[in-house]
Design a protein that fits this description.
The complex is a heterodimer.
Chain A lengths: L1 H17 L39 E7 L3 E8 L24 E4 L6 E6 L3 E7 L4 E3 L10 E4 L1
Antiparallel strand pairs in A: 1-2, 1-3, 3-6, 4-5, 4-7
Chain B lengths: L1 H21 L23 H21 L29 H7 L20 H8 L9 H9 L11 H14 L2 H16 L9 H4 L9 H17 L1 H19 L1 H30 L1
Helix pairs in contact in B: 2-5, 2-11, 3-9, 4-5, 6-10, 7-9, 7-10
The chains are: A alpha+beta, B mainly alpha.
């Protein structure tokens, strides 16, 4: 009887452990890059708006890692185009298709969110901050705002 | 053998308590900005982030001035734009007061209402800031400013809490308990005549902006009522909190370092703004 009680109690103890969330090891993310890395080459900074070049007032997002592939340059001047990336004529392709980014704005934070209109999980990218979004959570951003 | 039995019973009791904490307790879930997740203790809130940004601008302006450049921006603190906390819109609309006043919008905190600053910045100033010119300090004023606010300390990763928070959000979003609650919320909305699959869909509805129509306000009211009826926010908060508690246990040392680093940056930023304010009074 005693063995049975101990067995039941041990089984009860083990059961919740099986339903614990999977291990969440720290993973690199462009939302987490806070200092410059030799791994990345910053793109040149030019002075024209939404021209396919990463300007100093742009949030630039690439469809591949390491700032490669097609780039979306959301300018700070286009304040109404930020809340729904998919609705942007020039940059709509990047919605849920982002793997790396740089906040090229020189003195504003960019807040990047998983859902339109500042909803879901939002993370901050400091001025000049850049890097990759790591698997399995790449291609999951849909909007951003400045502050 | 009795001590062993007693120890096991104690362990079972403790475990039962911790499980109960991770599941909806029936206690009322706080609204909107009052919601908190465990990792919020380790990172800057949006308000604190704004303090850092405002101090960043002060240092950037000072640094550029030391190198002969006057930046076309003001050191006056900027107002907060966007959600007041990381939780306000994490699970969709959650704040009854905002919902009554602005529907699905953010009212005066809507980023689209903020006039952009002039983008006129001459190449010499850009060079000084980015460190690409001959007259620029090492790393540019950008790097000098980060150092002044200890934003990239050696041996600590201030952005770790944010990174883990992104992971916990994505994991909780696909958790069967959250998916069931979202489905229940969607059914509740449908029964009231609103077809939305997730709580993010009405926020993104192009028909809704800043409570400008009775339809938007009525939908927002129904949205919150359905969240309350299905305990969507309580379930999601509980599930994500459990994920975050596990992450905190697995990354305890690194997270303590991140918290200390973020506290230091916030203190330096506040000191910067205080000094700037005092200098402005003279």
């Amino acid at each position: 009887m005693r063995r049975l009680i101990i067995g039941v109690l041990l089984a009860f103890l083990a059961l919740p452990l099986l339903s614990l969330p999977a291990q969440a090891a720290p993973e690199p993310s462009y939302l987490g890059k806070s200092k410059l890395s030799a791994t990345f080459q910053k793109p040149p900074i030019s002075g024209t708006m939404e021209d396919g070049v990463c300007n100093w007032y742009d949030l630039c997002i690439w469809e591949n890692t390491n700032l490669t592939g097609r780039m979306a340059d959301f300018t700070y001047m286009d304040t109404t185009g930020h809340p729904v990336w998919s609705a942007s004529t020039a940059n709509g392709f990047i919605a849920n298709n982002d793997e790396s980014a740089i906040n090229a704005h020189l003195f504003l934070n960019a807040y990047i969110c998983t859902d339109p209109y500042q909803a879901g999980q939002c993370g901050v990218l400091i001025p000049g901050g850049y890097g990759n979004t790591a698997a399995p959570f790449v291609n999951n951003s849909e909007s951003h705002y400045w502050n | 053998m009795r001590p062993l039995l007693a120890a096991l019973l104690t362990a079972v009791t403790a475990l039962t308590a911790s499980c109960a904490q991770a599941l909806p307790s029936g206690a009322p879930t706080p609204d909107g900005a009052a919601l908190r997740l465990p990792l919020d203790d380790y990172q800057h809130s949006p308000t604190q982030g704004l303090t850092v940004t405002n101090a960043y601008r002060v240092h950037l302006i000072r640094c550029a001035r030391r190198h002969g450049r006057t930046l076309p921006i003001t050191s006056s603190p900027r107002p907060l734009v966007g959600p007041r906390t990381w939780m306000e819109r994490r699970y969709g609309l959650t704040d009854p007061a905002d919902a009554a006043a602005y529907g699905y919008g953010l009212g005066p905190r809507d980023p689209a209402h903020q006039p952009p600053e002039s983008p006129v910045l001459d190449p010499a100033s850009i060079a000084v800031i980015t460190g690409t010119g001959d007259e620029a300090p090492p790393g540019g004023c950008q790097e000098q400013t980060r150092k002044a606010l200890a934003m990239a300390p050696a041996g600590a990763d201030p952005a770790l809490p944010q990174r883990l928070s992104r992971i916990s959000f994505q994991r909780s979003r696909t958790d069967p308990r959250v998916r069931a609650a979202v489905e229940a919320w969607s059914d509740c909305m449908r029964a009231a005549g609103h077809a939305y699959a997730t709580p993010f869909d009405p926020i993104a509805d192009p028909a809704f902006r800043d409570g400008t129509s009775e339809k938007e306000l009525a939908t927002a009211r129904t949205d919150l009522a359905c969240k309350k009826r299905t305990d969507l926010v309580g379930v999601w908060l509980s599930v994500e909190s459990a994920y975050q508690r596990t992450m905190i246990a697995q990354n305890a040392t690194a997270l303590q370092g991140a918290r200390r680093a973020n506290q230091t940056t916030l203190r330096l930023a506040q000191e910067t703004l205080d000094a700037e304010k005092r200098a402005g009074r003279r």
